[in-house]
Write a structure and sequence with these properties.
The complex is a heterodimer of chains A (622) and B (302). By secondary structure, chain A is an alpha+beta fold. Helices cover 35% and strands 17% of the residues of chain A. Chain A is built from 17 helices and 21 strands. In chain A, the strands form 4 sheets. In chain A, strands 6, 7, 8, 9, 10 and 11 form a 6-stranded mixed β-sheet that branches. A 5-stranded antiparallel β-sheet of chain A has the order 1-2-5-4-14. The longest helix of chain A is centred in the first third of the chain and has 18 residues. Chain A starts with a helix and ends in a 32-residue tail after the last helix. In chain A, 54% of the residues are buried. Chain B is α/β, with parallel strands linked by helices. Chain B folds into 2 domains: 132 residues, 3-Layer(aba) Sandwich (Oxidized Rhodanese, domain 1), CATH 3.40.250; 127 residues, Oxidized Rhodanese, domain 1 (3-Layer(aba) Sandwich), CATH 3.40.250.10. Chain B is built from 12 helices and 13 strands. In chain B, the strands form 4 sheets. Chain B has a 5-stranded parallel β-sheet with strand order 1-6-5-2-4. In chain B, strands 10-8-11-12 form a 4-stranded parallel β-sheet, covered by helices on one side. A two-stranded antiparallel sheet of chain B has the order 3-7. In chain B, β11, α11 and β12 form a beta-alpha-beta unit. The radius of gyration of chain B is 19 Å and the shape is globular. Classes of the chains: A alpha+beta (622), B alpha/beta (302). Chains A and B meet through α2, α4, β5, β14 and α14 of A and α9 and α10 of B.
């Protein structure tokens, strides 16, 4: 008996010494990557280079593994690293930093669907990036192609004061279940899941499957929205049923994918997302078919299948830290620390980048990036910061192309700011219109017509220069920019959205944006309405003119997004009543001077040559 | 703790390097008539422990290629100073021989070179020594900064060595000029490698060259990754070990000098450096490939 005790004791001591738990970071994230896929990819590249694999077949394989062709240059790829639920560890961020330095351009890029992208990687080096990613549990598998793309989850999930429960484990279990799953390796086209934490936070109406958590009679469940999505033609998702219990989440998901796989359009590339299927056969019919399909799925699902999903869900749950939260019955607004002590860089940051969690005493901190870009050295500093200050020792990517670090104690906030701001990561404005979203545009994408990426950065710098972040009227408003109509910049769910195009003025081609008003996210999200076209170099002037009139005409404490919403619905409180009034106001501003006197107005940002709209075959639909 | 794990890692590497050194010595014994068997040989990269032993036994000339004032603030024990700029100001073979003579380096002196610029400056100097016929030269596997952080022996006194007379035996097999590059451009067995960073390469490069940025070559703790890893990179690129490779970079052959040594350690026997690099190529008005169809610079978060 004594021996056994001693032995156990010895074992536990041994364990402590070997694991050196204090120095080693807990491996808090799941392993998504597989090392063997790297070698497999390297071999396929060789076969392709030796003309033993045809270009179309290789292209499909490449996309399935998460590598896009780069803009007008097939030698290079963009690698889209999946970040399921947006959840990422410091070790993973450090690996991304070193992979970018070695094989990419020394910067990484947070996408609007919570991925992290590495651009301009030599095709032959892609396998080395995969190898590195697998070492830290990451993968880019099925980040592109006709597959289940990165499963999004609200970055507030787990800390949101208005959430009924944390949806992160569900998002991750769904991601895990469908990754490499034979039923979704060759769908008619890509397929997207978005989870929210509450009715307010989340992009649930613009996904193939959007999920809002809810509890009924003590049972966890979701309001499931189907058939939404942004693109050249956008749709808002439909509510499947009042309540889908969590026990039916898997069968509902499988049924949706099976139905889409069977009925989806495989001929017309431009109309093969599920939202077109839903719109073509009508929602009632689709809904009826789906509910029947779900019964079939539930009747035939095997025990091992069911168990593997339950296993994923339980692991996800175990990974969560539990800090008792102050129970909130009624809906409260996410509080922001209100500090009126002037406008020092610290207080500016505190006001717009720090959010109180439901766990009392803990705060979440935004890192405001410029259109999602972050350098390798900044990633390393950021990783240190997470380790040092976050209790959960992880961060989340956000659809606004920022990061959120959570579980920080109030007294640590000054130190966090000091560390971040010393390295260019302390910009304010995260929850205001300052944090402009821009897809990669002509910096790397084949489909792009304009340099939306640079425009987003230009707007953000201008706003910071004008101290727009200090003005509370711009909280909760957003500007989102896409370089083409395909909506990667999510321009249709912005207060003011823009998508790029080209037009002829006189004898010159000009980069031009279509401006949209009053789009929004969340469970009541609406799509923006197109207002007018604005030449690229006039976008800033137009936005500032809108601000000027907003200040003059809004009533009471109306915020920009509220005012814009009224105007787009014909209820403007001042002189500008509706969209036509707005157009008339802006028309004189968008007029371009003659080409001979001001050729710069005819060029796009980041280019000193005349504008030409060049695109190549997109790979989204491959 | 951190230090401990580092030294463990280093030891692992050392084993590999030592094995490699031994096999190389065997090869050398067979091939080389210049080295009597008693002289140890260095194989491109010298690990920390080997250098420390050599210093103790007084069997090596250590060369510090950082700026003079950096050298005066502290340097590896016994090191002599040769700022890269001094070599570049006059890098015809006779001047380089003169430099060797002044550093007290004779034909069979082992030379180990280091810098604080991830090995790029050291590489350029080491290449020059090889070019004029000095066989036994290697790069130190770490930078001065790392050496210092590991708490290894440094000193502040200026070291001078008595002048010797080095023979001259120019090795044109490791040298390329613009004309050579032009002829190599359409030769499928010759591969031109641009060692600059990706965005510079995309902007403009020598037509038909491929980009292996210098940032691909280093590891966390060493100026060069281990040879097997480098070899895999090369194989991924479809480069055969029997291909001839010519490296170049932006201006004076530093980044491409590092690539020269990386490719050598990876097992490519025929590597040449174009020391005047892209700067000269452009000044000669030679054609270049530009890529203007994308605004990739705007992705950089710098």
């Amino acid at each position: 008996m004594l021996n056994t005790i001693l032995l156990t004791l010895a074992k536990s001591i041994d364990y402590d010494v070997l694991s050196s738990a204090k120095n080693k970071e807990l491996e808090t994230n799941e392993k998504w990557g597989l090392a063997e896929e790297s070698e497999y990819f390297a071999n396929k590249v060789k076969l392709y280079r030796q003309d033993k694999l045809n270009a179309d077949e290789f292209r499909r394989f490449r996309l399935q593994n998460g590598a896009y062709g780069s803009r007008l240059n097939s030698e290079f790829s963009m690698i889209r690293i999946k970040v399921p639920g947006g959840d990422i560890t410091p070790t993973q961020l450090e690996k991304v930093a070193s992979l970018s330095e070695s094989f990419s351009i020394g910067s990484a890029h947070v996408s609007t669907r919570q991925n992290i992208q590495l651009h301009w990687v030599q095709l032959e080096d892609v396998s080395e990036v995969f190898r590195g990613l697998a070492e830290v549990g990451l993968t880019s598998r099925e980040a592109c192609g006709n597959t289940i793309r990165n499963v999004m989850c609200s970055h507030f999930a787990g800390v949101c004061p208005n959430e009924p429960f944390d949806t992160t484990p569900y998002a991750k279990a769904i991601a895990r279940f469908f990754l490499r799953n034979p039923i979704c390796q060759n769908l008619p086209r890509k397929f997207k899941f978005n989870f929210s934490c509450c009715p307010e936070h989340g992009y649930v109406r613009i996904a193939d499957v959007g999920l809002v958590p809810t509890v009924r009679d003590g049972v966890r469940g979701f309001r499931v929205y189907l058939g939404g999505g942004l693109g050249a033609a956008s749709f808002i998702g439909h509510l499947l049923e009042e309540f889908t219990p969590e026990s039916r989440l898997l069968s509902t998901s499988i049924a949706t994918i099976r139905l889409y796989d069977r009925l989806g359009n495989r001929e017309n590339l431009a109309r093969n997302r599920m939202r077109y299927l839903v719109s073509e056969i009508g929602w009632e019919k689709f809904q009826g078919l789906l509910l029947k399909e779900r019964i079939l799925v539930e009747a035939t699902i095997s025990i091992p299948t069911r168990k593997s999903y339950d296993g994923f869900l339980n692991t996800g749950d175990l990974n969560n830290i539990s800090i008792s939260s102050t129970s909130t019955k009624s809906k409260i607004t996410l509080p922001v620390i209100n500090s009126n002590s002037g406008d020092t860089p610290y207080t500016r940051w505190l006001n717009t980048n720090v959010v109180a969690q439901k766990q009392s005493g803990y705060y979440s901190v935004y890192i405001t990036l410029g259109a999602g870009d972050i350098t390798s050295s900044q990633l390393r500093i950021f990783a240190e910061c997470i380790r040092e200050f976050s209790l959960e020792k992880k961060a989340r990517t956000t659809p606004q192309q920022n990061f959120l670090v959570r579980y920080i104690k109030a007294d640590q906030l000054p130190k966090v700011f000091q560390k971040l701001s010393g390295n260019g990561l302390g910009n304010p404005g995260a929850n205001t219109i300052v944090s402009t979203v821009g897809c990669s545009g002509t910096t790397s994408c084949n489909l792009a017509i304009t340099n939306s990426h640079r425009l987003a950065k230009e707007i953000q710098s201008k706003f910071l220069e004008l101290n727009v972040d200090l003005d509370k009227d711009f909280v909760d408003s957003s500007i989102k920019i896409s370089g083409c109509p395909n909506s990667c910049g999510q321009h249709e769910v912005a207060t003011i959205g823009f998508y790029g195009g080209a037009t002829r003025i006189g004898t010159s081609m000009v980069p031009i944006y279509t401006m949209l008003f009053a789009g929004s996210t969340g469970e009541n999200g609406e799509l923006g309405k197109a207002i007018m076209r604005v030449p690229a170099k006039k976008v800033l002037d137009v936005v500032l003119k809108i601000f000027e009139h907003f200040k003059k005409e809004r009533t009471g404490n109306e915020k920009l997004n509220e005012w814009i919403y009224k105007i787009s619905n014909g209820n403007g409180p001042g002189e500008i009543k509706n969209v036509d009034d707005m157009k008339n106001l802006l028309l004189p501003i968008i007029e371009l001077p003659a080409f001979s006197t001001a050729p710069d107005f005819y060029k796009d940002y980041g280019t000193d040559t005349n504008f030409v709209a060049k695109t190549a075959r997109g790979e989204c639909a491959a | 703790m951190r230090c401990l794990s580092k030294s463990i890692k280093r030891k692992k590497n050392d084993v590999k390097v030592k094995v490699k050194v031994k096999s190389k010595i065997v090869n050398k014994r067979v091939k080389s008539k210049a080295n009597p068997p008693s002289t140890p040989s260095l194989n491109f990269v010298c690990d920390i422990d080997t250098l420390r032993t050599l210093i103790k036994k007084n069997k090596v000339r250590v060369v510090d290629v950082r700026k003079r004032d950096e050298y005066l603030k502290g340097h590896i024990k016994t090191a002599a100073s040769l700022p890269l700029a001094e070599l570049l100001s006059n890098d015809d073979p006779e001047s380089i021989i003169n430099i060797l003579n002044n550093l007290g380096i004779s034909d069979d002196t082992l030379v180990v070179i280091y810098d604080d610029t991830f090995g790029a400056l050291a590489s350029r100097v080491a290449w020059s020594f090889k070019f004029v016929g000095h066989r036994n030269v290697a790069l130190l596997e770490v930078t001065y900064d790392n050496w210092k952080k590991l708490g290894l022996e440094i000193e502040r006194k200026s070291n001078k060595y008595s002048k010797v007379s080095h023979s001259i035996d120019i090795d044109y097999s490791i040298f390329a000029d613009a004309e050579y590059i032009e002829n190599a451009q359409n030769d499928t067995n010759k591969i031109i490698i641009d060692s600059r960073e990706r965005l510079n390469f995309l902007t403009e490069h020598i037509p038909n060259s491929k980009n292996i940025p210098y940032t691909m070559l280093r590891s966390e703790n060493s100026i060069l990754r281990n040879p097997s890893e480098l070899k895999r990179f090369i194989e991924n690129r479809g480069i055969d070990l029997n291909n001839e490779i010519i490296t170049y970079c932006g201006s004076v052959g530093t980044l491409s000098g590092l690539a020269f040594f990386a490719l050598k350690t990876a097992g490519i026997s025929n590597v040449k450096l174009y020391p005047k690099s892209f700067k000269e190529w452009k000044s000669l008005g030679k054609p270049k490939t530009e890529f203007k169809d994308a605004n990739y610079w705007d992705l950089s978060a710098e």
